[in-house]
């Protein structure tokens, strides 16, 4: 099995917001299953890519969803002209050959997915392939990482305590203003001063969460806006297109976001 | 793979209502994922066809619905006399060969569809084909465009914030009266003065939304009515058949629409 | 592909109630998608058969239901001893070879069905066969017709505005008394005077809708009753068997219908 | 196709309660679709068997249920060593070769089943085999009969008006006391006087429906009890075992039934 | 077909609580469909095994559940290297070759299962194999027996009256104290006096049903406890482990059960 | 069949909290089905592994979930180039060859799973393989063990009484402070005094259950924290990462946990 497509060969840009790199390294040293908690677009996926690059391990990422079955993770028998043969799923590939397996938005997964990872996340570190009659011991390099956005718990989906308890956790948030300004300037190519104004807009939008906005403007949206401005579009148009138009359909909330833009430009 | 069936060879008629063509070109220059927001029949699909023609890129359109699976988008193994072989889905075709992929009415899709596009809409621009064990890097020409009708959010379906935040957005509405009149006259062949009367009826119907009509008369319906009038049908019959009879089943609302026709002819 | 089984070779009896034949011909001239609205058993299906015969076009009829998939309409790959080959569904057959495709009771269909018809019902007139990688341009003779019973909207199923707006509409109702009398006499063979008494019963039953009867006695039921009377059964027995016994299970409503029969015979 | 397994060669015992045999014959003469309405165990199935024997037509009976698909009725392609071939379902067999098709408890069927019978129950008398591309004209001997228990409508399942209106209907009830006594005596072998006492118990139980019993003791249960008594079991034991023990789990209702037995023996 | 695995060759221990053996024999003599009603663990399954042994008939037992399909009962076509061939399901095996078929917990079955047994439980005694085009007449030895726990009706699942009415019924309960003591002593090997104390605990627990305990301690649990005591475990530990620990999770109820044990030892 | 992958060759560390080892051995001596009740992460899985090692029996563990079918447990026919052949599922393997079968979190299983085990857990000790037509007598070494967390019953899932009553039960809880301290020190390598401080934090967190925390800090989480501390991470960081960050998303509860850490370090 060739894991090279899963190796990250160039350093993914990541600007630390605390000592999360050291904490991850300690967790990886003991192969503790790790949960990354935090809002959308704050950098969790980028962080795990950065850590995979830093540790020199292949990374297999799976976006969880309610239509993904246990077989999609673990594998299945496929019919061939020579009969059926077993096909490892991506989780099994990671367990067998020693990759970091990253289950993005674990809370979206169905129960059969979350239950599959239980024997991988306690002292056993095994993956039973029931249909194949094999008990797979995890490769020493294997680690399981999941991401989780606590802001969605209102949607009725929650992690079961018996799953939560299997993970050490790192909490993420949008970076501090100065750091976020650096990131926006670096990734979009605009001036730091202009980046700071965009970050200020984002901060104001995040405060609207108390008034009912589901999520504020993310770092990723700031980078989109900066890119368009750098490309020559007027800042106001760029901000509306990249930051506020997609964010809400509520007329009141849209007006509040518009007012923030009014104040900024 | 021959993308020529997806190429648009004759210019689709599109009458701009603002500088949306320039905004789209900026977004395409950076391959920003783009969301087109607006009511039914206001020209979003025509716009993306026009832009694909203008940019000279093939366009693969998919109407989202709750019965479409991730495999319908990404592809699957098909059984053949020579065993199974992989068959790229339409999204994969667009990603691999560099088309614009347009997901119409994204909000109707199931979670596994919307989650599939996540790694295509951040810095990674990849499409993991988990079942095939391939991580597909997007072709430089690939862009993802989705459409979204915010007026439907009352039906209980909404885009998750983690999906919304991945898109820059362009907001559409029915064109201004003068522009809409031009369009109706151009497409149906009737006089501008008659087209203006039809547009006036549409405007009055759209105001009925405040009284509970789900959507007003669209530009497309005006063109239907104009076509029938141009063909010799009496205007009143044409308007009832093409504009009001299909629009509602509520007796009150039907009467209100009838009254608008009474006033017009 | 041989469409001859779908050709209607003998004129289906149809008694016009207005100028609906001319309106249909105008709509067909421009291949406008057409919606036939009206109550059960008032003659919508017969009308579209009559028009297909009159226009000399093959007619492919599909009864929509919530278990019909998009593949049932569009087609699928079937496994053969020579491997898989594509099998056009009935909608695709109509689009490719130029039939009128009639989707009966469109509101019963699932979303993936109604979404499939969208690109056939705007300026594009195409049917994308995503699984086959083919974009099928509609044959010049192809027209889409749907039927819709607005009386059922209380059952929670409605057409989405984005679907409604794609259709010109013809409204049907039970024919006027004199016309309905002609139809019943013609189809059952009874005297016109007796037919008039049956039609009078039907009219009284339809007024019960205000008191909660879901639908009144249809023209079809009158023809059944007339047929039994013509065959020698007593009128009262014939009316109970063919008109009232099937119509309701509510004791109050059954008694009201019985009282109407009492008054008639 | 050999329909002989579906032919009824010995006369099924049926005791008419009115002129339902003549009414059925008239309906069959015109092949009117027929609905048999009435409570459980009152003889609807026996009646249709009797009529099939009397008319000398094969009878194909299908018990409707919510897990029966349209393909179960109409047929499907089956995979063989020689590739796929079409396999007529039981409804198609009846339509093609001229049997009476009896859909027992039609209200339990899913929508795709009830919709399938629509074109068989109007002037067309056709069964479109969409997947096979065949439009099957009904054999002249084919008739569709359905049964329906109106007492269940409280369970939330109802026939759609558009289905009801396609049927002439015969209403059934438990036979009158004298007739029911004859039937019980004839089928179980007990004396007429004893049979009369059993029938009296049944009548009292049926009055409990007003107090909440879902259904009273049916004719079939009376025959069971008579059979056990004739076999030497004490009447009280026979009645409890065959008539009351199965009927309810409510302590109050069980006590009321017990009191009826107390009074009888 | 070899039914020998379904034959019971050694007498299953069964202690009658009334004349249920004679009642069963009368029912079997006429092959009346039989329903065994009673609480969990009171001996219904053992009784039917005993009767099958006594009558010298093979017994095919099926535990009903909501995931069991009609095909699981009746049979299906299986694909082979020589094409497809029909495979009788366990119910079909019983009907064809003359076994007693015992459907345990019939109320858990889905509708398609309960409907399948209808033509087997009236005068027809047939099993239509629709997919195979065969109408199977029941073997003279075939009898259908179902079990049913009326205590569960609160879970929203009930037998339809049209199913109930097809069965004669035998009512079961836990045996009287003296009989139950005999059974516990016989099966576990403990002294009769000790067995009597266990039975007394069970009786007290069953009275807790009025206070909300779902079911009291069953005979089977008493035998477990007796077995552990006979094996040398202290009675208190044995009773907690085998009788009370599994029975409830409610702290109040657990305390009440504990108090019963306190009083006993 | 080679069960050696299921044999446990090195003693799993287990610190008894009472005489549960003796109780298990008595239950195993009579092959009583056993239910292990207790909260997440208190050592139930470790205990059953320890007992399998102690008794020298292979152990087949299955994590129950609502997407696991009866066929996943029992087995199925698989298609091969030589036709179909039967493939024993993991439960069948345990029953046929004599392993302990451990169904983890039985309450998560669907009904068809729990019903499958019924004939294995009464006097019959059989597993009917209906699809294969085999009645499998359990190997003398076979025992069924299930785990069950009563704290979850609020999630609407409960074991049916008819399932509960088939098991003897052992109740587990987190170990007493001294024992838990020993375990944490032994498994993580930290000093006993530091381990005691961690255990004290866990005890305080468990008391928060009365204030709404779903579950307190488990022994497993204490070991994670101890491991990180032993590795050089500051205790406070280690405790947040391994013990509190994953446990809750409620701001109030998170603050309460933080206050416990404040008091400890």
UniProtKB/TrEMBL annotation, chains A, B, C, D, E, F:
Gene3D superfamilies in the cross-refs: P-loop containing nucleotide triphosphate hydrolases
CbbQ/NirQ/NorQ C-terminal domain mapped to chain residues: 180-263
Domain ATPase dynein-related AAA: from-to ranges: 33-167
InterPro entries according to UniProt: ATPase_dyneun-rel_AAA, CbbQ/NirQ/NorQ/GpvN, CbbQ_C, P-loop_NTPase
Assigned keywords, A-Z: ATP-binding, Nucleotide-binding
Family: Belongs to the CbbQ/NirQ/NorQ/GpvN family.
Name of the protein this chain belongs to: CbbQ/NirQ/NorQ/GpvN family protein
Species for this entry: Thauera mechernichensis
């Amino acid at each position: 099995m060739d894991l090279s497509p899963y190796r990250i060969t160039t350093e993914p840009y990541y600007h630390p917001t605390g000592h999360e790199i050291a904490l991850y390294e300690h967790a990886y040293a003991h192969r503790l299953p790790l949960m990354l908690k935090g809002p959308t677009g704050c950098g969790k996926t980028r962080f795990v890519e950065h850590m995979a690059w830093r540790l020199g391990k292949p990374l297999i990422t799976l976006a969880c969803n309610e239509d993904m079955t246990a077989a999609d993770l673990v594998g299945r028998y496929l019919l061939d002209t020579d009969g059926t043969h077993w096909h490892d799923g991506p989780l099994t590939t990671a367990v067998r050959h020693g990759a970091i397996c990253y289950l993005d938005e674990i809370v979206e997964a169905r129960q059969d997915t979350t239950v599959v990872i239980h024997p991988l996340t306690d002292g056993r570190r095994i993956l039973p392939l029931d249909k194949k009659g094999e008990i797979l011991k995890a490769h020493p390099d294997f680690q399981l990482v999941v991401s989780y956005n606590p802001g969605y718990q209102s949607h009725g989906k929650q992690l079961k305590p018996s799953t939560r308890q299997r993970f050490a956790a790192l909490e993420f948030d949008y970076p501090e203003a100065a750091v976020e300004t650096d990131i926006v300037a670096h990734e979009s190519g605009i001036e730091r001063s202009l980046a700071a104004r965009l970050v200020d807009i984002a901060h104001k939008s995040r405060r609207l969460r108390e008034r009912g906005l589901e999520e504020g403007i993310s770092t990723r949206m700031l980078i989109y806006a900066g890119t368009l401005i750098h490309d020559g579009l007027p800042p106001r148009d760029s901000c509306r297109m990249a930051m506020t138009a997609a964010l809400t359909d509520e007329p009141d909330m849209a007006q509040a976001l518009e007012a923030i833009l009014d104040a900024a430009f």
